[in-house]
Design a protein that fits this description.
- It is a single chain.
- The protein has about 230 residues and is mainly alpha-helical.
- The chain folds into two domains: about 5-90, Arc Repressor Mutant, subunit A (Orthogonal Bundle), CATH 1.10.10; about 95-230, Four Helix Bundle (Hemerythrin (Met), subunit A), CATH 1.20.120.530.
- Helices cover about 70% and strands about 5% of the residues.
- It has helices at about 15-20, 25-40, 50-60, 65-75, 95-120, 120-140, 145-160, 165-185, 190-205, 210-230; strands at about 5, 25, 50, 80, 85-90.
- It has a three-stranded antiparallel sheet. The chain has a two-stranded antiparallel sheet with strand order 1-2.
- The longest helix has 25 residues, at about 95-120.
Length: about 230
């Protein structure tokens, strides 16, 4: 299979492969998204060695785009190359997630303050729609979809703050957080509490109350910190 543009899912990609498909994306990008999603959703488990030939056969991509995707994931810190052993999915680290949380507490509480002041009707409608869809997936305990909607909710919040630099900082933090979010959401009763916390954040945004928004976001992140400390 040669590098180029793709407009369809790889034959053996399955659901995870189809999630990443967008007309015009290169095979390298599609392979990157499919592998990354499997790492985030712990299909490729923390500490697991992944072989390029196996990944290529499993996802239906050629060796070249898979190799390029793994190189990109290595730069992002999601995989590591162990000399004479191969490529390993980066193990989860309690220290790493605690450091991410510290940065989120500073940046994301400020973000929701701005969002409470600046969110327009379109932003609020988008957030409401995300939470409506999240309730449906929460009811059936689909952790993968809940995690994806969790990311979408926080991305739209960042967009509502109307600060592109802050939004990019938070996007990177959220991408680094996704695997921890997935692990945390698997804990008993975590699904409903996250939904309630998101509802509180949205209520404060809808009321254009910066103090309430910041307090709700801090409670949300602190709850995540407590939960992830228990499960890791």
């Amino acid at each position: 299979m040669t590098e180029g543009l793709a407009t369809h899912a790889p034959a053996n990609g399955g659901t995870l492969g189809r999630l990443a498909v967008t007309a015009g994306k290169s095979l390298r990008d599609l392979a990157y998204e499919a592998i990354k999603h499997r790492i985030i959703a712990c299909t490729f488990k923390p500490g697991e060695y992944i072989n390029e030939a196996y990944v290529s056969a499993t996802l239906g991509f050629g060796r070249t785009p898979v190799h390029q995707a793994i190189d990109r994931l290595m730069l992002e810190g999601m995989v590591e190359v162990i000399p004479r052993k191969g490529v390993i999915v980066k193990p989860v680290s309690l220290q790493e997630v605690m450091e991410i949380i510290e940065v989120r507490l500073l940046n994301e509480t400020y973000c929701v303050r701005l969002a409470a002041e600046r969110a327009d009707d379109t932003d609020i409608a988008a957030l409401s729609d995300i939470l409506a869809r999240a309730k449906e997936w929460t009811a059936v305990r689909n952790v993968e979809q809940m995690m994806l909607l969790d990311r979408e909710f926080h991305l739209v919040l960042a967009r509502a703050a109307k600060n592109a630099v802050l939004g990019e900082i938070l996007r990177k933090l959220h991408e680094r957080s996704l695997r921890f979010w997935f692990i945390s959401l698997n804990a008993p009763n975590r699904h409903d509490s996250v939904q309630d916390q998101h509802d509180a954040i949205l209520a404060a945004i809808r009321d254009h109350d910066p103090d309430a928004a910041a307090a709700a976001m801090r409670a949300h992140i602190e709850s995540f910190r407590s939960n992830v400390a228990r499960v890791l």
